[in-house]
Amino acid sequence: MPDPTDPAALAEALRAPLLQISRRLRQEAQRVGMSALDALILGHIRKKPGVGASELASAERMSRPSMSGHIKRLEAAGWIVRADDEADGRRSGFQITAAGEDQLAAIRQSRNDWLAARLARLDQGSRADLAAAQAAFLKLLSLDP
Question: What residue ranges do the domains of the chain occupy?
């Protein structure tokens, strides 16, 4: 029997369930009226007001022209606005609007509700296992360059 803690075996065992959970959480964002990528971009702008399009594109590992399309859609929806850089008047960045904050809150609530409803159907031991795994998942994410 293979060692379940072997990195390759563990990756094989976790990959499919993690992808399925991720897909369902993305679907919750769409149910609220926004793509998961748009939610990520909004969240990045909220954490770093004044961020520019190039930095957003780099953060999401996409081309600047692709990011430009997402930015235009977020602006048209009224979820972000352009803001001049006070230190460099030639540069502008983005800020999230109150409507954008409301949209992020709605997505967060929808995702939390979906996940909490499923967690509530698990037994106490399974929930404890998942609570203990949270720290390991956060460490795993921190290893990303």
Answer: 29-142
CATH, domain 29-142, list 3.60.15.10, 3.40.50.300, 1.10.10.10, 3.90.220.20: 1.10.10.10
Return the number of other C-beta atoms located less than 10 Å from residue 93's C-beta: 19
Q: 10 or 92: whose pLDDT is higher?
A: 10
**Distances 3 to 9, 10, 133 between C-alpha atoms, Å:** 7, 9, 18
* Residue 90 structure tokens: 């030639």
Task: Quote the pTM value.
Answer: 0.77
Contacts of 5 (CB under 8 A, 6+ apart): none
Q: What type of residue sits at position 78?
A: G
What is the pLDDT averaged over residues 105-127? Answer: 94
